[in-house]
Amino acid sequence: MARLNPWRWVVLGLAALYFLVPLASSVIFTVDVPGQGVTFDAYTQIVSTDGFVSSLLLSLELALATIAIVLLLMVPAMVALRLGAPRLRPVVEVICQLPLVVPPIAFVAGISTVLKWGPDHLSRTPLFQTFVAIQNPSFPFVLVMAYVVMALPFVHRALDAGLRAIDVRTLVEAARSCGASWPQALLRTVLPNLRGALLNAAFLTLALVLGEFTVAQLLGFQPFAVWIYSVGGSQAQLSVAVSVLSLLVTWALLLALAGVGGRTRTASSRG
Question: CA–CA separation, 215 vs 223, rounded Å?
Fold first, then answer.
């Protein structure tokens, strides 16, 4: 095993260069202004730039709504699948992996076609107002529905790994024998043991929503990723500075998630 240590360091060093060299180049580009020297104006101007706060808040709202909906859909379904229909697990897995196969352009084309049904075929029905409401620019719920579909592969993998690590049937049967209802058994026995998997699923969904560009751009909305693209056309340094900060924030969230997951495993092992 000792002979493998140098190779591990080599692999880690190459991985660090692969990630850190582009990041360092981006930071240098944002702070080194020709004729002015080193300046941090690109970072100090971020908050005051028009559209930054509104686009970031919109992305966070979309992310929270997406996380809530996808977990409400997937957690009961995955638990019920493991308890009552284990033979259907391969079918559900294939269905949840389909968003990885469908190109985003084709996905957006399908959404746009469905949205056109509103003015074309439903203008005299109550459903027309529903089509209008889900496309409200202040909170485009149509993006939430699209992001829920796109997040299915990641949420399914995270929850499936968490459920494989615990004996769901024994936990539920023990809770039921103590007089708990099915919702109580899910909330009080299963979910606490899935805390790490739920955090993983939530983080992956948050990263997906914050970085998603194609669907929002083609549907005509401006969350955070689209705002960064629009700013980059006129203020390149500002756009790169925002991208660097968002990457650092994502890394910080990942480290915090790893810390929470580590404390959870330590506490459960002590118990």
Answer: 11
